[in-house]
Amino acid sequence: MNIHEFQAKALFQKFGIAVPRGVPAKSRDEFAAAVQTLGNGPCVVKAQIHAGGRGKGTFVDGFKGGVKLAKTAEEAVEIAGRMLGNTLVTIQTGPAGRKVGTVYFNETVAIKKEYYLAVLLDRASSRPVIVASTEGGVEIEKVAHDTPEKIAKIFIDPAVGLQPYQARQVAFALGFTGEEFKAAVKLVDALYRCWWESDASMVEVNPLISTADNRVLALDAKVSFDDNALFRHPELKELRDLNEEDPKETEASKYDLNYIALDGNIACLVNGAGLAMSTMDIIKHFGGNPANFLDVGGGASKEQVTAAFKIILSDKNVKGILVNIFGGIMDCNIIATGIVAAAKETGLSIPLVVRLEGNNVEAGKKTLAESGLKLVSGDSMADAAQKIVKLVA
Amino acid sequence: MSILVTPQTRVLVQGITGDFGGRHAKLSLDYGTQIVAGVTPGKGGQFFEHGTHKVPIFNTVADAVKATGATASAIFVPPPFAADAILEGADAGLALVVAITEGIPIRDMVRVKRALGGSKTRLVGPNCPGIVTPGTGPKSHGGCRIGIAPGYIHQKGHVGVVSRSGTLTYEAVYQLTVKNIGQSTCVGIGGDPVNGTSHLDVIKMFNDDPETWGMIMIGEIGGNAEVEAARWIKANCKKPVAGFIAGATAPAGRRMGHAGAIVGGAEDTAAAKIKVFQDCGIEVAVTPSDMADALIRAAQRLGAKLA
User: Fold this and answer.
1) A358 and B CB contact within 8 Å
2) Does the residue A8 lie in any domain?
3) Model-level pTM greater than 0.90?
4) Do B115 and B222 fall into the same domain?
5) DSSP element (H, E) containing B14
6) Which residues contact residue A4 at a Cβ distance below 8 angstroms, ignoring those fewer than 6 apart?
7) Residue B267 has pLDDT above 80, yes or no
8) Strands A87-89 and A58-59
9) Are A51 and A83 within one domain?
10) How many structural domains comprise chain A?
11) What residue in A sits closest to B200 (Cα-Cα)?
């Protein structure tokens, strides 16, 4: 689960991570008071969406920049007014963009230098790793590719956690000295605790900055949490913003369906994540375009299949459906009965290809054949994929 | 032979009184697996009954091991308690712990993995379908089934299968069995970013097993475990290997069902992994329907037998 910058910074402050002063506002009447809190002078106005690249983004009405410097309080209120409710398109949002529901006002700070700092899981070692670079404010992937020597990685032993010498290693790697060094060590330690204690999958500060008055601050904040651990963080779960999610994905999650919307026209319904991914791949392989990823899990009950069909059909791009079920344990006939019931209940009128394999498959195929539905049976995954691609073309 | 488990392996089930654990304990008993004990704290002294089977339930894994000589465990307990269950299994000295549970917090697994360092217990999973070593009976009956895989699709033989995905493993096994090519052992290592046993760990075991003549390695986007295994295969393995990577069409930055299936950078895409497979002499299955055929091509190229 991802959260907004203003939420991430509030979390940072709980752990003692220094951030510029800021005030979020969700409605126009809050703007003036927010700017007042920051001293009624120049400030930075930041549109809050989950996607990155906001500064260089453009709103759909042509207004440029999701992060803007306002020279006066009046200008800040005016800029915020242009952002709120508007839709921001960035390099990460896709052409549809994201609607801005919150504007975040920040004090201006005199930036001396920008750095990069993040904590995440290193999969190869199964350990937490702190990634730090003197090259901040730019894409870290680009730094890693062009100048890998400018990236320091400090691996943490989860049995003992981050040690003081390691926080110092990070601060030295970033070249801090004096007061700034002390502040950086404190910040690194707090950032690691924030990552560990809130079960984050990643905390990223880009840029981390030093200021003209020798402070070290998290100028931006990006935090995502491990969904598996949200059950033990009810306070973090509340930070979820449904406006940032595809409504179809939100609906799917209510039925324990794992659904991700894509931009093709062949929907698929599959049991198992690996099989679901490779069903998308095989549609593409035979010249079609998958409309979604959809894993119904091991069971594929009638209720789930019906809900899945409804979600699939709410996507107006969808011109055909491929159902691919390997019923290892479950009786294929029960699955077939569920598919028939779901198709009838949703009044399915677009081509449907079903590939069933596994336990009691002959009875399942018979149920499908005798259903009166205009569905096509596929023998293998390849056969089924070719059939649906042809039917939709 | 086989790897990790044999038809004689004595298995206990942690979480045998839950719906999920109970259902699959019954299926394993039906398959002929030696399910010798169940563990549910507070239900020690009761029995898990299925047909003529009467499996004793114990309060702790240590008690179960002491009384029954179990050496392997299948874990079905819910995610908040699964890390504890794994560590209890290791503390009781089990040789093998297979964690089926999906949805264990990553931080818990980071700690578990660290705690298991240097331990004699091998963890497979979590979030995995488990392990099957097929038996010699009809529809491979009499084998060792730990987890949730359909036993009957297997056939005893000489191909090893290792995969991060459950249903994709069944797909590969089914293709092999239909072609009358049996399996030595099939191992689901799970779809989480932190797991106990890697592709490479399993590939090394298959390579050392004289009864495994060829292997299918199934991977997906995210991480570099498949790449690590492929490079090792190139340097050390003389047996035919086929590979498949799922997720070529997955959008970057989205978790595709499995917590570990996410494209973070250029190196964990399907295309990058497939390229490494090809460079390492692994026969790549063009589609998931091609997995068994790919292995047959690899075997023909080396003049090796698969059955």
Assistant:
1) yes
2) no
3) yes
4) no
5) strand B11-14
6) A48, A49, A50, A102, A104, A239, A241
7) no
8) antiparallel
9) yes
10) 3
11) A124
Residue B90: give the domain boundaries. Answer: 11-124
Q: How confident is the model at residue B268 (pLDDT cuts 50, 70, 90)?
A: confident
ipTM above 0.85, yes or no: yes
Which uninterrupted H or E stretch holds A116?
Answer: strand A111-122
Sort out which chain B residues have CB atoms less than 8 A from A140's CB and list them. none
- Domain assignment of residue A14, yes or no: no
Is the same domain home to A308 and A335? yes
Q: Which residues of A248-281 are buried (b: 16+ CB within 10 A; e: fewer)?
A: bbebbeebebbbbbbebbbbbbbbbbbbbbbbbb
Q: Encode pLDDT of B210-240 as tens digits.
A: 999 999 999 999 988 999 999 999 999 999 9
Are residues A27 and A85 both part of a single domain? yes
- Pull the structure tokens for residue A369: 């054949």
Whether the upstream peptide bond of residue B126 has omega within 30° of 0, thus cis, is yes
Asked if A288 and A191 sit in the same domain, the reply is no
Q: Tally A–B CB contacts below 8 A.
A: 170
Annotated catalytic residue: which of A116, A192, A255, A259?
A116
A116 annotated active-site: yes
The total domain count for chain B is 2
A303 belongs to the catalytic site: no
Residue type, B101: T
Triad A34, A38, A41: Cα angle to 5°: 105
The contacts of residue B141 (CB under 8 Å, 6+ apart) are: B31, B32, B135, B151, B152
Tens digits of residue pLDDT in A135-170: 998 888 888 888 889 999 999 999 999 999 999 999
